[in-house]
Amino acid sequence: MTSLFSLSLALLSLSFLTTAVAASEFTFHEATIESIHLAFAQNRLTSRQLVDFYLDRIQTLNPSLRCVLEVNPNALAQADEADRLRAAAAGGNGTLGDLHGIPVLLKDSIGTDDKMNTTAGSYALLGARVPRDAFVVERLRSAGAVILGKASMSERYSLRSPQMPRGWCARGGQGVNPYVKSVNPCGSSTGSAIAVAANMVTVSLGTETDSSIICPADHNSVVGFKPTVGLTSRAGVMLISPSQDSIGPMSRTVSDAVHVLDAIVGFDPRDEATEEAAKFIPMGSYKQFLREDGLNGKRLGIVRHPFSDYKGSTAASIFDQHLMTFGSKGATLVDNLEIENIDIILKPSRNGEMTVLRAQFKHYINEYLGGLSNSPVKSLAEVIAFNSNNPDLEKMEKYNQDGLIAAQMTSILDDDVVKAQHRMTKLSEEGFEKLMKENELDAMVTLGSNAATIPAFGGYPVLTVPAGYDDNGMPFGICFGGLKGSEAKLIEIAYSFELATRMRKPPLSFSTEFHYPYYEQSYGTM
Ligand SMILES: *[C@@H]1O[C@H](CO)[C@@H](O)[C@H](O)[C@H]1NC(C)=O
Ligand SMILES: *[C@@H]1O[C@H](CO)[C@@H](O)[C@H](O)[C@H]1NC(C)=O
Fold it and tell me: May I ask which residue range the UniProt record assigns to the signal sequence (predicted)?
C-alpha cells in the first residue's frame, strides 16, 4: 500500500504541472454542469480538457479507490466531437443538448452498445454484446453527454452472496470510501458515488431497488436521486424488480442531478411503467424547480425513530440544526412522526423483501441474458455454473454464491413470493403512504440513508443531499422521501436546503485516512 501511495503522489505532481498550464482559469475540482457550460461558452475549457482531467484522476486514484471498471476507449473522440459541434453551434446553429460535452459515468449494469462491457461486476458477462444502448444511455447521448466509463458496483446488486460486503465485485475488488477508508462505501451503486465524490467525473448514473443510490450517496457525500419508478426507463438495464427499480443521477449538487434527470426521464415503449409515470413529467423541465425559496410553505414530516441516533450525537445534533434551517426558510415541521410497523419494514428477515427480490431477479436476469449475443452465459443457471467453473476469477474462496443459488430455486409464481409481495404493499400503504397523506406532507425527512427502504417498497421517489460529517470525518446525508411524482417538490426542498447549508466538502481536504496534502490545494483550483 505504501509504495502504491508514493507512486500515486509522484504521478499527481506530474499531472498537476501539465494540466495547470493547459487550463488557466477553470476550476476542475467540484466543477458543476453550469460552471462547465459557462467555461465552454467563454472558451476557457474544452470537453477534451475535461475528459483528460478525469481520465488522469481515474488513472491516479482508481488503484486505491476501486470505483471504475472500464474507461470508454471512445471518450476522447466523443469529447472532440462535442467540441467540434460546439464550434459549429457558435457559427449559428445553436441547438446543443443540455449535457453537451459533459462526462458521465454509468453503473456497470447499464447496457451500452459500444466497446465497453456491461457485467454487473462479474466476469461471466465479459465480451457479451447488448442488443442496443439502454434507453437512458440513448437519452444521455442525444443530450450530448460523453460516456466516460463503467462504474464498479456490488456484484449483481449484492445478490450473489449474503457474505459479500457492499461495494465488492470480482472484477473491481472492494470499492473504498474516499472519506474514511475503513468504513464501507455502501452499495450497490458504489463506484458511481465514489467517482463523483472524488472528482473523477462530473456526474454518474446509479440504479436503485432499495437504497442502492441513496446509501452510497449518503456514505460518500454526494447527492443521490432515485426517481419515482417508471419516470426513467429500465430498458437495457439489468433489472431486479419492475415495481422497485429506478435509474437515477448521482452528483455533487442538486442542480447537476436535475440536469441529468431532465435528460433521462420519459416514455419508452420498451418499459411499460414509463407510460403511467409519464404524466408526472412537468411541462418545461425540472430545472424550473431549482428555487432558492423552495422550502417556503412546505410541510415536512420528521421521522426520528430509529434513524436519528444511529450515527451518534454529532450527526444527530447537526440534523437538529438543519431542522431549524428548514423552519427559518418557511417550512412547517411536523416532528416525531412514527411509521407504522417500522421495525418490520426495516428487518429483511421479516418484511418479505428478499423473498420477492430473489424471485424477480431470477426472472428478469434470465430475460436479460436471453437477449444478449456472444454471451458466455444465457441464464442464471449458467452464471452459477460459470462461477463454479471459474473459482479463481470469481474469487469463490472469498465469497460464495449462495444468494444466486437461492434465487435459482425460486419462481415469481410461488405462493410465498406472491404473499410476500402483498405484505410489502400493505406495509407501504399503512406505513409511508398513510404517514404522508394523514399529515399532508410534502416530504418525509430522515437522517442518514436507512429510511430509504420505506419509500422503496412502493416505488416512491427519494433524494439525499450531503448534510455533514461525524467526528471521524464520515459523511452523512439528509434524506427526503415523497409520494409518486413528487419530484418537483423534492427538488425545491433539496435545492433550497443545499443553498442554505452547503455541507459537501471534497474528500481529500480533511480526511485523516488519505494524505494528499500538496494535491488538494494545488490541483483543485486553477
Ligand atoms: C443544427 O444541428 C442539428 C443537431 O446537430 C442538426 O440536426 C441540424 O441539421 C443543424 N442545422 C443546421 C442549419 O446546420
Ligand atoms: C471488454 O471485455 C473484453 C474481454 O472480453 C476486453 O478485451 C475489452 O478490453 C473490454 N472493454 C473495455 C473497454 O475495457
Answer: 1-23
* pTM across the whole model: 0.91
Secondary structure (3-state) at 307? coil
The ligand that comes nearest to the alpha carbon of residue 124 is 2
Residue 60's identity, in one-letter code, is T
Answer yes or no: is 96 within a domain: yes
Distance 126 CA to ligand 2 centre (A): 7
Q: Which of 212, 308, 428, 496 is catalytic?
A: 212
Query: How far is the centre of ligand 2, averaged over its atoms, from the C-alpha of 127 (Å)?
Result: 6
pLDDT in tens, 398-453: 999 999 999 999 999 999 999 999 999 999 999 999 999 999 999 999 999 999 99
How far does residue 85's CA lie from ligand 1's centre (Å)? Answer: 9
Give the CATH number, domain containing residue 68. 3.90.1300.10
List C-alpha distances in Å: 227 to 80, 245, 267, 287, 430.
32, 9, 14, 15, 22
pLDDT tens column, 228-273: 999 999 999 999 999 999 999 999 999 999 999 999 999 999 999 9
Atom of ligand 2 nearest to the CA of 127: 5
Contacts of 217 (CB under 8 A, 6+ apart): 189, 193, 206, 223, 224, 250, 449, 464, 477
Domain membership flag for residue 6: no
Mark whether 188 is an active-site residue: yes
DSSP letter (8 states) at residue 208: E
What's the 62 CA to ligand 2 centre distance in angstroms? 17
C-alpha cell at 59: 488513472
Q: Nearest ligand to the C-alpha of residue 128?
A: 2
343 lies in some domain: yes
When computed from its CA atoms, the radius of gyration of the chain, rounded to whole angstroms, is 22
**Sequence-ordered list of residues with C-beta below 8 angstroms from that of 39, at least 6 positions apart, any chain:** 25, 26, 45
Nearest CA to ligand 1 atom 1: 93
- Per-residue pLDDT for 523 more than 60? no
What residues make up the domain containing 274? 25-517
Number of domains, the chain: 1
C-alpha cell, 187: 452499495
**All residues at 6 or more sequence positions from 370 whose CB lies less than 8 Å from its CB, including other chains:** 378, 379
Q: Relative to the alpha carbon of 144, which ligand is closest?
A: 1
Neighbouring C-beta atoms of residue 83, cutoff 10 Å: 20
State if residue 327 touches ligand 2 by the CB under 6 angstroms criterion: no
- The residues that bridge with 105 in the sheet, in sequence order, are 149, 204
Backbone angles phi, psi at 267, to 5 degrees: -70, 135
> Residue 15 falls within a domain, yes or no?
no
Region of 33 (left: φ > 0; alpha: ψ -120 to 50; beta: rest) is: alpha
Lookup: cell for 54: 478525469
